[in-house]
Specification:
Layout lengths: L1 H4 L10 H12 L4 H5 L5 E4 L15 E16 L2 E9 L4 E6 L3 H7 L6 E6 L1 E2 L3 E4 L2 E4 H6 L5 E4 L4 H5 L4 H15 L9 H7 L4 H9 L4 H33 L10 H10 L6 H14 L6 E6 L5 H14 L3 E5 L3 H15 L6 E4 L5 H13 L4 E4 L13 E7 L6 H8 L7 E6 L5 H7 L4 E5 L10 E6 L3 H13 L3 E5 L8 H17 L7 E4 L5 H12 L5 E4 L12 E6 L7 H8 L10 E6 L5 H12 L3 H12 L1 H5 L18 H17 L9 H13 L8
Parallel strand pairs: 4-7, 10-15, 10-16, 11-13, 11-14, 12-13, 14-15, 17-22, 18-20, 18-21, 19-20, 21-22
Antiparallel strand pairs: 1-9, 2-3, 2-5, 3-4, 5-8, 6-7
The structure holds adenosine-5'-diphosphate and magnesium ion.
């Protein structure tokens, strides 16, 4: 039976060499098994009869019962067409023919009930070109599959006559030849526990559904199966890593950590922070490399967590590093961490592109002899010259800006790799995290420090700018500071740059000296000038900071309480959320004002509404995922993994959780899948790992 499924597709009756070639090229169908796995995109429900008054201009096929009440030929320059008026008592529509008019005219029965079927168009009323028609009486006597499958197709296939009907026929032929004896892939126990229908029945009903109910069961079973095997692979990969990749066991909780925790905490840790530190501490206590993702919304307090983890490394006699994507951010971490760790008397230094040669030499030396305990930096840390004495923990901030390759470069510096903690403020929806980072462990800080007032967010049109400016003046009068951010997609984009400069000029005019002072920061400035200007704003010497998205990551000015985002429709949701996170860091009520033009696309409208509705980064990430699709969010390089056959990460998140839960359970009971009841499971699992190496996208 299994060999039969390996049969090349051209041997299927009705296919042959020419169509075989076409199927291979267009749909990647090489053998019987591939055709069986060509699932319909959708189904037309022939059990449903529409009424004319419920028709919508959605371009889908509908089935209606009614009568033709008159028929006429309309002559136009481009030719004749035959038009019939069709009614079902709830309304009227037109049936239209361009071809075969004579036959229709002679055979169509007026005032007799018909069932018509086809796609509806709307133009001054509904019309259906070339409907399939059947007398109601005959229709009642015919047997048919209730749900008609619509298969994926391409232009070439349609052109060369491989229509949907032809694909349906091939599928029927295949089921006939193979007698639908498809091997079960899941253990019996699992089928029973989850009430899953057998593989056979699922495949049959996905192609020839007998009813809505059976179709739903078939879809559920196949989606579960798909996600289950992905999770099985990711989780077992994680288990293998834990068994195979050695790590430093940090078994001491020593003086620095305890001293800091007992005497120098600047504030009480939130419960989430405590929980996450415990998770990380447990992980690093094992002689296995930690590979953990730390998610926490902007302002959730990841920095102090990072520091405390670094202290554990130091207490165990190791060095720690923190890598940030930009110089500004590295500087800020440096300032923040040295301040926090000041009473501990540690040797902490920073290494970036602009570190002077003399200083650089000292850093290299101290890193190698081990006297430098914490190094903070940018990509500069990855240079070959940088050698650690014994790097025990690498913290990486804002991971999406570092490629996987760069990360492993850091690892290669040691025989035993350091523990890795990746921190991100871009909340990855759980569903995505589960499927993409199934082989990483995840910690989440899901609680903001106390006393934060939710940021009030509003959407204003450009035409209301005067009112917005008046509001800014009120806030500045109260002693607050303001960000005004302009989109700059590429640092070289001339138009954007001009917008920014024009904006800066008019803002300087509207907020004149000496009452107000305005800073500007953008990517064309020298790093030193940028930093100096940031510094002025941070110290409160200027009231307004006009900037590009340079300030997106990391800037921390607690007194800045208003964020104005210009041309907000041009920003993505996660960017808007990141920008908003720049305010709301102090005790005062903060505001985010998104400025846009009047004309907005549906997606932009949704983005504005979402931002106004919620401050919750995870909720925003979910909406973002829906708007953009998962591939976009994670970058193209990882979208391969999302090339799922039937499941949808957004819509099927519940099935995903279930699949994950059962994959974990299965592997816990039988890590090598060697129990007899897991034979089929193991077989499929091995087939999949052989075929697809897409799971290697990370580390
Ligand atoms: P992020 O997660 O965005 O990196 P930070 O670590 O920069 O957040 O913290 C944001 C701000 O909140 C900082 O000013 C920090 O000092 C403060 N903070 C962090 N944790 C707490 C806490 N438990 N209680 C009060 N303030 C905190
Ligand atoms: Mg941070």
């Amino acid at each position: 039976m299994n060999n039969l499924l390996e049969t090349p597709i051209e041997y299927l009756k009705g296919v042959g060499p020419a169509r075989g070639e076409l199927l291979r090229k267009e749909l990647d169908i090489h053998k019987y098994a591939d055709l069986v796995n060509l699932y319909p995109n959708r189904y037309i429900d022939r059990t449903r009869y529409y009424r004319i008054k419920e028709l919508q201009n959605s371009g889908t096929e509908v089935q209606i019962v009614g009568k033709v009440i008159n028929i006429k030929t309309i002559e136009q320059k481009r030719g004749k067409r035959l038009v019939a008026t069709f009614t079902d008592g709830t309304g009227e529509m037109e049936l239209v023919w361009f071809q075969g008019q004579k036959w229709i005219r002679e055979n169509l029965k007026i005032n007799t009930p018909y069932v018509i079927f086809g796609k509806c168009n709307y133009y001054n009323g509904f019309s259906m070109p070339h409907p399939e028609m059947e007398l109601l009486e005959e229709h009642k006597q015919n047997l048919r599959t209730a749900m008609q499958p619509i298969y994926p197709s391409t232009e070439k296939l349609t052109q060369r006559g491989v229509s949907n009907k032809v694909v349906m026929k091939m599928m029927m032929q295949l089921f006939r030849e193979t007698q639908a004896l498809f091997k079960e892939t899941l253990p019996e126990k699992l089928l029973q526990e989850l009430h899953l229908i057998p593989k056979n029945a699922a495949l049959f009903n996905i192609h020839f559904p007998k009813s809505q109910d059976l179709l739903a069961k078939a879809q559920f079973r196949l989606k579960f199966e798909e996600l289950f095997f992905i999770q099985l692979q990711l989780i077992s990969k994680n288990l293998i890593r834990k068994h195979k990749i050695k790590g430093h066991a940090f078994d001491v909780i020593g003086e620095h950590f305890n001293d800091f925790y007992q005497n120098h905490l600047p504030f009480e840790l939130t419960n989430a922070q405590k929980r996450v530190i415990k998770e990380i501490r447990n992980d690093m206590g094992q002689p296995v490399q930690m590979n953990r993702l730390l998610q926490g919304d902007v302002g959730s307090g990841k920095t102090i967590v990072a520091l405390m983890c670094m202290l554990i490394a130091i207490d165990n006699g190791y060095q720690a590093c923190l890598m940030a994507p930009t110089e500004i951010l590295a500087n800020q971490h440096y300032t923040g961490l040295t301040e926090l760790a000041e009473p501990l008397g540690l040797n902490i230094k920073i290494l970036t592109g602009s570190t002077k040669t003399a200083e650089r030499r000292i850093i290299h030396e101290e890193l190698e002899n081990g006297s430098l305990q914490i190094i903070i930096g940018t990509h500069a840390l990855l240079e070959d010259k940088v050698q650690f004495h014994n790097l025990g923990l690498a913290v990486i901030d804002e991971q999406h800006r570092f490629g996987v390759e760069q990360r492993s470069k850091l690892w290669r510096k040691n025989t035993i790799p350091p523990h890795v903690l990746v921190m991100t403020a871009t909340p990855i929806p759980r569903t995505l995290a589960m499927s993409l980072y199934g082989d990483l462990d995840i910690s989440v800080i899901d609680e903001l420090p106390p006393g934060r007032k939710p940021i009030k967010t509003v959407h204003r049109y450009d035409s209301n700018r005067l009112k917005v400016w008046a509001f800014l003046k009120e806030e500045i009068a109260k002693g607050r500071q303001v960000y005004i951010v302009y989109p700059l997609i590429e640092e070289s984009d001339k138009m954007d740059y001009k917008d920014l400069m024009d904006g800066y000029e008019s803002i300087s005019r509207d907020f004149p000296l000496p009452e107000y002072s305005v800073s500007i920061v953008h990517g064309r400035m020298k790093p030193a000038d940028k930093d100096a200007e940031m510094e002025r704003f941070a110290k409160g010497k200027t009231n307004i900071m006009v900037a590009t998205t340079v300030i997106e990551v990391g800037v921390n000015v607690p007194n800045a309480s208003v964020m104005v985002i210009e041309s907000a429709e041009r920003f993505g949701l996660s960017q808007l959320h990141q920008l908003r996170g720049r305010v709301g860091r102090g005790a005062e009520q903060s505001f985010c004002i998104m400025m846009t033009g009047h004309k907005l696309s549906n997606d932009s409208q949704t983005r504005m509404e979402t931002m106004c509705r919620t401050n919750d980064g995870f909720e925003i990430a979910e909406v973002d995922l829906k708007l953009r699709g998962p591939g976009d969010i994670m970058g193209t390089q990882q979208s391969g993994v999302l090339n799922l056959q039937i499941a949808d990460l957004v819509k099927d998140r519940d099935i995903l959780s279930l699949a994950r839960q059962y994959a974990i359970k299965t592997l816990k009971e039988d890590p090598s899948l060697s129990k007899p009841e897991h034979a089929a499971l193991k077989h499929t699992y091995l087939e999949l790992t052989k075929k697809q190496n897409i799971w290697n996208y990370i580390s």
